[in-house]
Amino acid sequence: MPEYDHPATESLTLLGVLRGLADPIRLEIVFHLGSVPEATCASLLGSRPRSSMSHHFQVLRESGLLRTRIQGVQHFNSLRRADLDFRFPGLMDAVLAARPHEASAGTL
Amino acid sequence: MPEYDHPATESLTLLGVLRGLADPIRLEIVFHLGSVPEATCASLLGSRPRSSMSHHFQVLRESGLLRTRIQGVQHFNSLRRADLDFRFPGLMDAVLAARPHEASAGTL
To answer: How far does chain B reach from its first CA to its final CA, in angstroms?
Structure first.
């Protein structure tokens, strides 16, 4: 069964995580995943084109923010909360707590 | 006396702050300013060209991370800790705590 590569927890960098978060669509995906155990790519796409979203999912995986597991034809995405909390204590708490303040222009 | 514009605390956005932080040079400036009350532009330049650094200082000001006050011919920069802590509790604590983990390639 194919699998995605995910960086090891100890190799995550703050700069990489910040870059992963510094985009409105990716931040919205992270906000959404902060409130659910996992979500399919389809449910996260909204009305956006799949092609542009693939890039965002890849950036989120490579920065260590997101884990994707494949089950059959479905891709399930989850936030790597435990890994992120271990590596950068308090960072995701602070980011996710800011969700109500941010105007959401998307469909998630 | 000329002054720089600084966005009001209530207008700061998480996305703007994350974008401000998501660059190795800007993150290094923020790390440095996290450990001192304020610093002159000259002391933050290191060996980098002034032209490219002006852009980074502008991004940091516009995102609400940095305040620049002008005194004579000197520009003094400080982190807007109180404003950032009020707007995004815990965010800067988490970012600055990660400093020892990040390899520094710069001169700051």
So the answer is: 29
CB-closest option in B18, B23, B101 to A21: B18
pLDDT at B32 over 60: yes
- Name, in order, each residue with C-beta under 8 angstroms of A94's C-beta and a sequence gap of 6 or more: B88, B89, B90, B91, B93, B94
| Per-residue pLDDT at A40 exceeds 50 | yes
Phi-psi region of B90 (alpha: psi -120 to 50; beta: other; left: phi over 0): left
Residue B63 pLDDT grade (very low, low, confident, very high; cuts 50, 70, 90)? very high
Please say whether the dihedral angle defined by the alpha carbons of residues B82, B88, B94 and B98, taken in this order, is positive or negative. Answer: negative
Whether the Cβ atoms of residue B48 and residue B25 lie closer than 8 Å to each other: yes
- Quote the CA–CA distance of A12 and B57 in Å, as a whole number: 26
How far is the C-alpha of A30 from the C-alpha of A95, rounded, in Å? 9
Residue of B13, B87, B98 with shortest CB distance to A14: B98
Select from B94, B103, B50 the least CA-distant residue to A11. B103
Is domain B11-100 classified as CATH 3.10.129.10? no
User: How far away is chain A from the Cα of B34, in angstroms, using its nearest Cα?
Assistant: 15
pTM over 0.80, yes/no: yes
* Average pLDDT across chain A, whole number: 89
Specify whether the CB–CB gap between A65 and A88 falls below 8 A. Answer: no
